[in-house]
Amino acid sequence: MYAEDYKYTKEHEWIKREGDRARVGITDHAQKQLGDVVYVELPKVGASFGASEIFGTIESVKAVSELFSPVSCEVLEVNAELDGKPELVNEDPHGKAWMLVVKLRTPAELDGLMTASEYEAHVAKEAAS
Length: 129
Known about the structure:
The protein is α+β, with helices and mostly antiparallel strands. The chain has helices at about 30-35, 80-85, 90, 115-129; strands spanning about 5-10, 15-20, 20-25, 35-40, 50, 55-60, 65-70, 75-80, 100-105.
C-alpha cells in the first residue's frame, strides 16, 4: 500500500528523496486518523529544522496535530495550494498534498527511517495496542 521509494516516520510523515532534496508530507494512515483536514500551517521558505523538530501544524474537525521534520533540512518550497485547499491532504496525501520540498542537510538520516513494510508493521502494531 505504501510506496517503496518513500521513507516513513513513527509520527506518520513520509519523505521521498529527489537527489539532494526531498519532498515531505503525511501518510494516508495519518490523514485517516485526523479526519477532514480544515487547515495546514507550514513554515516559510528558508526555515531550518532538525530531525524530529516541529515544522507546522495540521488541523482537522477532530484535532490539531503537530507536523515533525523527518530529517535535518532547510525548506526550499512549501505547497501553497494547501492554503486554499487543505482537503487535498485527505484526497491525495502521497501526491498533490505534499507539504514541503527540503534540502537535505544529512542525507544519511534517511537510513534511520522506516521502509514501507516497516511502516505498515508499525501502523498494525499501533492499531493493536
